[in-house]
Amino acid sequence: MFRRLFRSAARQLHVLSTQTIKPASPTPSCFNRYNLSSMDQFSPHTYIPIVFYYPNHAPNNAQDIADKSCRLKHSLSEILIQFYPFAGRLHSGAYIDCNDEGVEFQEVNIKCGLSEILDKSADEALGLVFPAGLIWGNLNYSSSPLVIRLTTFECGGIAIAVCLSHKLGDGCSFSTFMTSWATKMRTNTSSEDKLLSPHFISHPSNDDAAVIVPEYPVMKKDGVKKRFVFPNSKIAQLKAIVNESGLQNTTRVEVITALLYKCAMAVTTANSGLFSPSALVHPVNMRLKILPPVPETSIGNIYWSIFIPTRNESEINLNALVEKIQKGKMEIGAVKTLDATKYWSNLLEFSRNNYSFFFCSSLCRMPFYQIDFGWGCPSKVILVDAPINNSFILMDTPNGDGIEAMVSLDEENMATFEQDKEILAFTSLHSTAGPL
Q1: Which of 97, 339, 372, 410 is catalytic?
Q2: Three-state secondary structure call for residue 415
Q3: Nearest CA to 360 among 308, 283, 302?
Q4: Strands across the sheet with 89-91, in order?
Q5: 3-state secondary structure of 46
Q6: I want to staple 2 with a disulfide (CB 3.0 to 4.6 A). Which of 120, 172, 276, 410 is the partner?
Q7: Radius of gyration, CA atoms only, the chain
Q8: What is the pLDDT along the chain (436 residues), one digit of tens a residue?
Q9: Residue 322: Cβ within 10 Å count
Q10: 13-42 in b/e burial notation, b at 16+ Cβ within 10 A?
Q11: How many CB atoms lie within 10 A of CB 208?
């Protein structure tokens, strides 16, 4: 049924305009070059895709939609004065030429209701609201590192899909930009008092030689993706079980990450009939951990990943995994600088020893559900999962009453994983096949 809806909606998708939005005032010549850090340079040449869905709470009015569009573009132009590298162009992978070429802003209209998109769990729906080819798509040197699509629906609801180059930042950078943009539009003021001021770190100049980014050792893309919702009440039960072993100050993300990793390893071992050593790769925000600390509004790839190895089957234990995660986070405090070559050497060392990888990223506690442009907070925010198997992406639920996990596994393992007793015990009923 949904495929029929999708084909019908796709036929009625009308591209209204494609514009280039430039900063409202020129970037000073002293800021024309923004050098990328080593972590930026070694980040993938891909866009991070996040979409924000906003229902219509007022009578549907074409003029109101036109006004929203106009104000979005105006406030974007204003905020790009502060986020000037976002309006530049990548040069040889080493720096951003802050030449004010601008960001791409698309407007489309779909002849269906917003609820018809939100109620369905299909990748095709995301293909309607994102610019073509940009869901984790590759960035080339002539392209805008920031691309935005505004989609309007018959009901008056809208979707704002934002694709930000991973070269320019991580999830925290994305959150800072969206919060600043929304605040700028909502307050409609030239005062910077209420805005989150981005902090661009000055990195040493480097030569213009193209930087070769290593491929992740395993990037299987034929997985099955499903969403699992962990209510806070169930998370509290899970934490209580872990705390009985003597562990203290466990966090929601720690226990859910450990549970997902444990169950995924268990089903992989059961289905293959053979245990294979594996490692959990878990990024940690380093803004307040490196020395000296940098502001939380710092832009860039300012994270470090802890590696949790599982060398034998006896280590597939929830309490032991939580303890390893906590220990890894404590040890990461000794990292003084973020050296990408060391990061990649850690990854490649496990790969050479034939470890399988599981990746878990968390956007919990980031204020994506508070991004209010003046017409209320989004009803749904989706970070489209990365096109790799054995991955988990964690986000807060819309009402803050739990954590939503997007899990990607191969088809056989997913069929077993979603029937795992522990997964069923700690997720809400029917959440495993829930909608987008």
Answers
A1: 372
A2: helix
A3: 283
A4: 33-35, 95-97, 89-91
A5: strand
A6: 120
A7: 22
A8: 445 555 555 557 889 999 999 999 999 999 999 999 989 988 888 999 999 999 998 776 767 888 999 999 999 999 999 999 999 999 888 899 999 999 999 999 998 889 888 865 556 678 889 988 888 888 877 899 999 999 999 889 999 999 999 999 999 999 999 999 999 999 865 444 467 789 998 888 765 555 555 555 555 566 788 999 999 999 999 999 999 989 989 999 999 999 999 999 999 999 999 999 999 999 999 998 888 889 999 999 999 999 999 999 999 999 999 999 999 998 887 677 788 888 888 888 898 999 999 999 999 999 999 999 999 999 999 998 777 889 999 999 999 999 999 999 999 999 999 999 999 999 985 444 444 4
A9: 24
A10: eeeeeeeebbbeeebeeeebbbbbbbbbbb
A11: 11
What residue has token string 């407007």? 107
Residue pair 362/403 in contact (Cβ under 8 Å)? The answer is: no
Active site residue 222: no
Indicate which residue of 166, 170, 396, 420 is catalytic. 166
Q: How many CB atoms lie within 10 A of CB 157?
A: 22
263 touches 422 (CB < 8 A)? yes
β-bridge partners, 52:
160, 381
**Residue 392 is inside which H or E element, if any?**
strand 391-396
In the 8-state DSSP scheme, what is residue 138? B
**Rounded to the nearest 5°, which phi and psi values hold at 364?**
-65, 145
**Residue 207 among the catalytic residues:** no
Backbone dihedral angles phi then psi of residue 249, each to the nearest 5 degrees: 55, 35
User: In the structure encoding, which two tokens stand for residue 298, read together?
Assistant: 């710092």
